[in-house]
Amino acid sequence: MDNLFMRHSVRRFKNTEVEPEKIEKLVKAGMAAPTAGNQQESRFIVVTDRDLLEKLSKCSPYAGCAAKAPLAIVPVADLNGAKFPEFWQQDLAAAMENILVEAVSLDLGGVWLGAAPLEERTDYLTEMFGLPENIKPFAIAVIGYPEKPPIADGRIYDMGRIFYNGYGDPA
Ligand SMILES: Cc1cc2nc3c(=O)[nH]c(=O)nc-3n(C[C@H](O)[C@H](O)[C@H](O)COP(=O)(O)O)c2cc1C
Description:
By secondary structure, the protein is an alpha+beta fold. It has one domain: NADH Oxidase (3-Layer(aba) Sandwich). 31% of the residues lie in helices and 17% in strands. The chain has helices at 2-6, 20-31, 50-56, 88-105, 119-129; strands at 42-47, 71-78, 109-114, 135-137, 139-144. Strands 1, 2, 3, 4 and 5 form a five-stranded antiparallel sheet that branches. Helix 2 runs antiparallel to helix 4. The mean pLDDT is 95. Flavin mononucleotide binds at residues 8-9, 11, 60, 62-63, 111-114.
């Protein structure tokens, strides 16, 4: 569980490639996430090509860090045959978090760049990868070896955000 609490967004990376074995572990972690009805509609576009990383960095005004990263993983949903297609974004969010937490355990770091449900961003990714109608891009996980070692920022456990047996006075 320490990996969970050590996870922080990393946007600056060393100029070091991520090894194929580690990329496989990251994708495996994504696939280990729960999906509605176990529909397993998640697919993972692994991007290591410099030009494509540069293009990903233009997906939104907040995606610039992709340009200098060695790796991005773009989870997409294949809605063909999905039993519960309305849950695809939740399924892929779980996959994203798994990938980012697994990155910590591999001495990597990363950041979630949001795309869905913002159409201008999902349209950008759809066009960039030439995705067919049934394939829905979700977000971009930018990953690499952190430029600086991660530090715990002391984010606190906030009792005021917890409500027992209903939403009233905090616990
Ligand atoms: C749905 C979602 C979308 C996000 N989009 C971006 C983004 O476009 N660019 C970015 O730099 N960080 C993005 N982030 C990362 C958040 O800014 C970051 O998680 C938050 O500031 C908390 O910091 P931490 O990850 O270090 O705990 C996103 C995170 C989530 C969950």
